[in-house]
Amino acid sequence: MCGESPGAWGSPPTPPRTSPRRCSSACITDFTHSAPGSMRAWLFGITRNLVLHDKRSYARRERHLAALPQPQETAREPDATVRVQQAAALMQAFLDELDLDKRLVFQMTEIEEMTADEIAEALAIPLGTVYSRLRAARARLERFRLRLHARDERRHACATNP
Questions:
Q1: What is the 3-state secondary structure (H, E, C) of the chain?
Q2: For labeling, which of 129, 132, 154, 162 is most exposed (least CB within 10 Å)?
Q3: How far apart are the C-alpha atoms of 71 and 26, rounded to whole Å?
Q4: pLDDT in tens, 63-88
Q5: How confident is the model at residue 23 (pLDDT cuts 50, 70, 90)?
Q6: Phi first, then psi: what are they for 98, rounded to 5°?
Q7: pTM exceeds 0.70
């Protein structure tokens, strides 16, 4: 029969270790010669076992997932949400001001966390050019930050001294 192998040192044969999915055509021909007429029942049994196996696997997976600690929702204050949106808008405004070549290098470095060597290879530019563009973009970011800081101070001064 398929999957049977003689045991070691004359012991009885070991049961098949292959799943029904791995049964070869030789196994099917062995079965058809040994038990004619019950092929349909045999195939039904294999199908039933596969479905039950999949159901057990799914239930096991669900139990494992249920045992994991659930992530806690942090309630964000409306002010925090507004601040995050404002920061994203400011960063987008800064990126829009940059030249395309500097913006690409800045985004690849700061956002995508690529190394200078990887950027040079990806953009097909010399390594020194990557460092030069990155330095220029960071300098522009610092000027942008100082400009925003000065604007906020002016707004604060106007709000306190009408």
A1: CCCCECCHHHCCCECCCCCHHHCCHHHHHHHHHHCCCCHHHHHHHHHHHHHHHHHHHHHHHHHHHHHCCCCCCCCCCHHHHHHHHHHHHHHHHHHHHCCHHHHHHHHHHHHCCCCHHHHHHHHCCCHHHHHHHHHHHHHHHHHHHHHHHHHHHHHHHHHHCC
A2: 162
A3: 51
A4: 888 888 877 767 678 788 888 899 89
A5: low
A6: -75, 150
A7: no
- Which amino acid does the sequence have at 157? A
Residue 95 makes CB contacts below 8 A (sequence gap 6+) with 103, 106, 107
The token pair that represents 157 in the structure block: 């001064």
CA dist 13 and 6 (Å) reads 4
Amino acid at site 96: D
**Which two structure tokens, joined as six digits, stand for 118?**
């990887």
Residue type, 98: L
CB 105 within 8 A of CB 119: yes
How far apart (Å, rounded) are the C-alpha atoms in residues 120 and 99? 17
